[in-house]
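Hi all, a correction to my earlier message: I attached the wrong file for Amino acid racemase. Here's the right sequence:
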Amino acid sequence: MKTIGLVGGMSWESSAAYYRDLNLGMRERLGGLASPRLAMTTVDFAEITHLEDDERWDQIGTLLAEAARGVERAGADFLLLCTTTFHKVADQVEDAVDVPVLHLADVVAAAVRASGIETVGLIGTKVAMSESFFVDRLAGHGLSVIVPDESHHDFLNDAIYEELVHGVVLPRTRSRVVSIIEELWDAGAGGVLLGCTELELLVKQADVELPVFPCTTLHVQAALDAALA
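and the right structure:
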């Protein structure tokens, strides 16, 4: 079994989901008391978000690269960034280590293409929706990506940072997010990416008719595949 490296802390709710689901997934696959070999570090989310607010992405990249090197030194055979937004500096992290980084967009794109869908909607943080780093990576796999109208970006960002990262799940927020997903459907999306770990706390497949691609769940499954390959 290979050792999975995790760079987390963005937020701790996200890291907890990765840790839990990796352990549950390994138990489901191997049974008994089986659990994955993990090397994990977490960063200070407050520090990272302050740097994000100031658009100091080079410094964020330096911090995450150093965290990744620590996980590599701890014995990781490959790495996951337990975040979507901060994949903005994934190239900087990849350049800092000698082990592979299992990029979230590559994993998600493979799942979407396997389903036969070519156009997907993406909901996530304001950075993930308004900047091109994640959408462009998906497009490199032949996917067309639709993001919500800009008028929804602040609402979605606030729902993530002011509610979900604190574990607060509100029905009124779910209702509005579902309506945003329906707008993406009307715009031509054949499925929707939950492009932030915490959104999986809020939206389930049962809430919408459009096929849902939970990015963290897909990332976890791909990591387990790689660890057991």
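Sorry for the mix-up. The radius of gyration is 17 Å.
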